[in-house]
Write a structure and sequence with these properties.
428 residues, Rossmann fold, five-stranded parallel sheet, two-stranded antiparallel ribbon, disordered C terminus
Length: 428
């Protein structure tokens, strides 16, 4: 454990002893802070308050937040609330924003860690395509500063997170100008699985899963957010959007974007689970006092087994005007240009020679897509290979998914992982 981490854990222990970490996170206080920071009071639609309250209650009761976790959560919630105030103010002043056309957006989804990010970034080499970028999902309003200042601000924030979670960048390379997942947009109205990745909050997740149309307000806001960004650009775009979470909101997407185009990316689920469990561990570790890595694998398995069943139920037809386009991870990494060309052809689009060349340049410049080397083991996250293979076999057969080589079981316990046997306290 580093000196910095040790200092955080000692501070958490003191704060827990005096009862500071047991204080509930109060939505009214955060709302007042956002109002004070922006100088605005009107949110317009206030239906976000119920989900915000549920999220904060779950964080307080279940997430075992440390001092850093509480601070980061407060900052995050105030930022979302401030953005809601600023967006409502902008749309009140310029109601034409809500007339911006969002036509035939392409939604890329599938299992996490399956190549959805890689495909998304390849498609962003086409200048006709547009995606929400990291910096503008964090600070969408010009009231937060010029574009240059906002990018610089987010760059500093990402460097801080790299310091808190140094393993993150190798798992998910990200900078301020990278295309961002849509979960960062839907998080603004506190209806997003993004929170479930960052925190252990089972009651919030159960609530979010309870109704397939509970995501409808999130995607209505999602559309307004895209309209707001597009209005600033002063030109209509072909939006290309990406998030594994879209699998759990297909009905809401269909209701809000009836002409949407859908891409499913497929990969061996066993490889997905190992990588996703490790990413979840890395994301949660800086903010919680207690973390059980062995519980993460089964939880991810349950979540994404549900995701594969939703893909199988949709098949080629999720109720959109055009059939679903299916992309396989092995094809994507072995022949990126042909794979992207296949997506374009599926939707009646043409991949230009310039974009094909740009894809080749991007791949040549990004060794392993920017990802680092990883060593995964089933036992680190409470998984057993044959059990997972059996559970996901129907999905693999249905879509012809190729099994990838699985890691060998560790013969001698790696000291770096020795503390992962059962739940461990992060206080010492």
């Amino acid at each position: 454990m580093s000196i910095t981490t040790h200092a955080f854990r000692l501070a958490d222990k003191v704060a827990e002893t005096v009862g500071f970490l047991d204080k509930p996170l109060d939505p009214d206080t955060l709302i007042q802070i956002a109002r004070r920071q922006t100088g605005l009071r009107a949110f317009g639609d206030t239906s976000f308050i119920g989900p915000l309250t549920r999220l904060l209650d779950s964080c307080s009761a279940e997430a075992a937040l440390g001092l850093m976790g509480r601070s980061a959560t407060r900052w995050d919630m105030v930022r979302f609330l401030s953005n809601l105030l600023l967006l409502h103010d902008a749309m009140t002043r310029s109601p034409e924003i809500l007339q911006e056309p969002i036509q035939q957006p392409i939604f890329i989804t599938g299992l996490p860690r399956s190549g959805t990010t890689f495909l998304h970034r390849l498609m962003m080499t086409d200048l006709d395509n547009r995606a929400p970028l990291v910096w503008e999902t964090i600070y969408p309003s010009p009231a937060a500063g010029t574009t240059t200042k906002r990018i610089a601000r987010v760059t500093r924030q990402l460097k801080t997170f790299d310091w808190l979670a140094p393993a993150f960048r190798a798992l998910h390379p990200l900078n301020a100008t990278s295309p961002q997942e849509c979960s960062e947009i839907t998080a603004h109205v506190f209806r997003s699985l993004r929170f479930d990745t960052n925190y252990h909050i089972p009651s919030y997740r159960t609530w979010l899963d309870a109704d397939v149309m509970r995501q409808l307000p999130a995607y209505r806001f999602h559309r307004r957010f895209l309209q707001y960004l597009q209005h600033q650009d002063r030109v209509a775009h072909r939006w290309v959007l990406k998030c594994p979470e879209h699998l759990f909101a297909l009905q809401a997407i269909r209701a809000v974007y009836p002409d949407a185009r859908l891409v499913f990316v497929h990969r061996d689920p066993v490889k997905v689970l190992l990588s996703q469990a490790r990413l979840t561990e890395v994301l949660r570790q800086p903010f919680t006092r207690r973390l059980d890595p062995k519980a993460l694998g089964p939880a991810e398995s349950r979540r994404w087994l549900d995701g594969t069943r939703r893909m199988m139920a949709a098949g080629d037809d999720a109720g959109f005007p055009e059939p679903i386009c299916h992309v396989h991870h092995m094809d994507l990494i072995s022949d990126p240009v042909s794979t992207v060309e296949g997506v374009y052809r599926h939707f009646g689009l043409t991949l230009s020679p310039r974009t094909a060349g740009a894809i080749e340049d991007y791949v040549a410049a990004q060794s392993k897509g920017g990802y680092g080397e990883h060593s995964y083991h089933f036992e680190d996250h409470g998984l057993e290979e044959q059990q997972e293979r059996a559970k996901f076999r129907p999905y693999m057969i249905r879509f012809g998914v190729t099994a990838e080589a699985a890691p060998q079981r560790r013969t001698n316990q790696d000291p770096a992982h020795a503390s992962q046997s059962g739940e461990r306290s992060l206080q010492a």
